[in-house]
Design goal:
The protein is α/β, with parallel strands linked by helices. It has a single domain, classed as Type I PLP-dependent aspartate aminotransferase-like (Major domain) (Aspartate Aminotransferase, domain 2), CATH 3.40.640.10. It has 10 helices and 9 strands.
């Protein structure tokens, strides 16, 4: 079996990080990986995270399995953090995942189970892991215009025109805030334009929320997600705790599905 496997190309980001470490120059900046760094170039453990770890160490009495969906308190608190109020939170079901990437993979798996012909629409450009996962799963994907390289901003006209071509049941992947890799974000009014188009086309929004709190604030960065959930009948949210809690190595994430049709699968 193993002799049929060829060597894999080195990961581009990890290779760039190694090049940075090997570079002996002092005036250099590492742009290779999206992690928080302080002024000294370190990624510290946040005080709140240390305190939480201490409390767990003192009171935890078992390492037995949690529920299949994950710790229920974590799920409830994350839904509150992202969706903001009880009414929206009650619309959805949630499952803990291995990081935001795991949440995206679970979302794609869920989509694939519902339809073998669905197309996932990605912004041009987008985070390279998005198309890589879809290619690995054999799922169809297309691009919608997003970034205008000449202006350095959003191409809202091109974006809306392309979304008008989305078929009913297709999935449109949107960056909830801090678009990766361009940093070009929609205004609240533009988000509502997108919501109206998706509603008219009968599409499902899949929101990648990896940077809540890194843009304009925890509440402000969740605004677009909350508006889409309030406006659309079905939304998937893949969220990561890596950035805003600084717990990269713990691989902590959540997948939320909102809509009346998911009420039956909520944990009791």
């Amino acid at each position: 079996m193993f002799e049929k496997l060829g060597p894999q190309a080195p990961d581009g980001i990890l290779r760039l990080m190694q090049m940075f470490r090997d570079d002996t120059r002092t005036q250099k900046i590492d742009l290779g990986v999206g992690v928080y760094r302080d002024a000294s170039g370190q990624t510290p453990v946040m005080r709140a995270v240390r305190e939480a770890a201490r409390r767990i160490w003192e009171v935890e009495e078992t390492k037995v399995y949690t529920a299949m969906t994950g710790d229920q308190t974590f799920l409830a608190e994350m839904q509150q953090l992202i969706l903001g109020n009880v009414e929206l939170s009650l619309m959805g079901a949630a499952v803990a995942t291995p990081g935001g990437t795991g949440a995206l993979r679970q979302a794609f798996e869920l989509v694939r189970r519902t339809s073998s012909t669905v197309t996932v629409w990605l912004s041009a450009p987008t985070w390279p892991n998005h198309p890589a996962m879809l290619d690995g799963m054999g799922m169809a994907h297309r691009e919608y215009r997003y970034f205008n390289a000449e202006t350095g901003g959003l191409d809202i006209e091109g974006m809306l025109a392309d979304l008008e071509q989305v078929a009913r049941g297709d999935v449109v992947l949107l960056h909830g805030c801090c678009h990766n890799p361009t940093g070009a974000n929609l205004t609240p009014a533009q988000w509502m334009q997108v919501a109206r188009v998706l509603e008219q086309r009968g599409a499902v929004a899949l929101i990648d929320l990896a940077y809540q709190g890194f843009g304009d604030g925890m509440e402000e960065d969740a605004l677009a997600t909350r508006r889409l959930v309030a406006h659309l009948p079905e939304v998937l949210i893949a969220a990561s705790c890596s950035k805003n809690f600084g717990v990269y190595r713990e691989r902590t994430g959540i997948l939320i599905a909102t809509g009346a049709s998911v009420m039956w699968c909520r944990p009791i």
